[in-house]
Each structure stands twice: as C-alpha cells, then as structure tokens.
Amino acid sequence: MSTIEEGALGALTGLSLGDALGMPTQSMSPAAIHEAYGRVDTLRDAIADQPIAPGLPAGSVTDDTEQALIVAELIIEGRGHIDPKEFAKRLLAWEDDMKSRGSLDLLGPSTKLALEQVRHGADIMTTGRTGTTNGAAMRVAPVGIANRPEDTRRLANRIYESCQVTHDTVAGFQSAALIATTVSLGLEGMTVRQALNESLRLVSAMETSGAWTPKASVPARARQAIQVSEEFSDEDDFERHLIEDCGTSVEANESVAAAFALAWRFADDPQSALLAAVNLGGDTDTIAAMTGAMTGACTGPEVFDPALCSQVASVSHLDLQKTARGLITLR
C-alpha cells in the first residue's frame, strides 16, 4: 500500500512512462511494430516513418502526458475546478505550438473536431456532443489525484469539467470517470484490482448529462475485458485477444477496456503491463498511459523502472513531483 503522496507521483509517473514507451509504436500494426523494433521492451527512438511521431528520441512523451499536465495546471490554478473556456483556449494554444514545432502528434479526432468548432465561434456547451474517443480519459488522472472518491457527486462534476468541451457524451464521460475514479481509489490505499472493481461499480451509478451515442458501453466493455483476461494462461493468447476481440483503437470502449484488462492481469507487475500495451498496435501510447496511471496510483512509482522514468523526465523536461504536490493540496 502506498501513501497518498506516493500514489499521486505513481499515477503521473506511470502515465508518462507508458506514454513514452508507446510513442514509437502508436498507430502502427502489431506486424509493423515487430518489423521495425522487434519486441519493444524499453524506451526506443521512433523510426523515421513513424506515422505520428517520426524520429522522436527515446523518452519523449506525447499528447497524453502534455494534455494531462494542462489539466493539472488548470486544476491547481482553479483551486480544484477546470474552467471549460480556459481549457479550450489552452488546448488550442498547445496545438498551435505543436504545429510550429513541426510535430504531427496533434489532437485526437474528437478533441480536434470540437476545438475547430470553438475556433469558429461555437458554443462550448455543444462542441463535445459527438466525442466518444479516449481523449478525455487519457488526460484525466490529475482529476483523480485532486479529488477523494467518497463524494462521488463532486468527483463526477470535476470529471465532467475536464471532458465537457471535447467529450460531452456518455461514453466520453464514463471513460474519463473510470480512469479518474480508479486513480482516486488507488490514492486511498486500494490495490489495483480493488480499485478497478470499485471504480466500475461507482461509475456505473454516476449520473451524466452527456449525449447518448449508439456505441457500446465503456464500463460494460471494461468489465467484460477483465473477465475474459483471466481465461488465458498464455501471454501471446491474451495479447491476441486484446487485438482481435477487445480492440486497441482510439474509441474509448476499446482502449479503456484494454487498459482495464492489462491493469487487472498485471496487477502485481505494472511494468509488464506497459510493455504488453505498447506491442499491441493501435493507440499504444494512450493504452499504456492509462494503464500506468491506474496501476501507479495504487502502487506508487517504485514499481516502474527508475532508470527509464529518469530518462523520460530528462528528455521530456518533466517535474512530476511538483505537479503531484500541487494536486494533493486540493484533495
């Protein structure tokens, strides 16, 4: 059992390490990953024709970590609250900065669509009504760090503030809520599996004003992914199941479900969970980031390779301890 301080740092450490480990493999097929890198078991430079992050050096984080840190900044500045208009402004500025640096690692499809509408003067109360991808879930860990799980209504309101502009759907909210609630429960001392189970129970009971979509339920898919993950004794068969049956796309009901299955299966070995995630293909960096945030919150940062964590912090210029402390003071 980790302390609250260790859990907060563990969540941010796991998020950033998973993100960086998945950076060179994101949006690639499993076959392409194997051809380019073999089995990824450490931080790697991205190949020159990486579709999202060509040539980035090993240890570089992507939009998952950078947007999570924007969320953290807004929470700290807002004394617990996120102002949706300011959030939209920060995301637009971040995208412009990434473009100016020549990066292809820009906004995901739901966030991009919503913010393009914001640029053209749309009401931010309406811009997120189609967002069902994992953009809200990948960046929400700071909300879980800053809020205790006992007051579920307050926690739900804070989660909603973080996803309204871009993912104002039932799927968008519930995907973010699953990650944030698991993180929050982990900081209270729950084990990985206890937190995953309790998060599924709490989120399924939370009310949301998000728009209905015909996509499969994120909690239902996550619960199913956990159950099925226990059926495989062989790791290759388990990974094949995630690729073929669960799915590893940016859709929240695939990627969040995959993260839950990985966190559950590797509850006692989070480092292996991240390495399994980054070899799956698809949205590898986000699946690994979400998995790392949830497991790290329950275990603290010591479960992750310290040399790799130091490399990520150095290459990507991260001060996660400062961010963790700022969020804990609001908890």
TrEMBL record:
It comes from the Bacteria. InterPro entries: ADP-ribosylglycohydrolase, Ribosyl_crysJ1, Ribosyl_crysJ1_sf. SUPFAM superfamilies: ADP-ribosylglycohydrolase. PANTHER family: ADP-RIBOSYLGLYCOHYDROLASE, ADP-RIBOSYLGLYCOHYDROLASE-RELATED. This is ADP-ribosylglycohydrolase family protein. Pfam families: ADP_ribosyl_GH (PF03747). Coiled coil: none annotated.
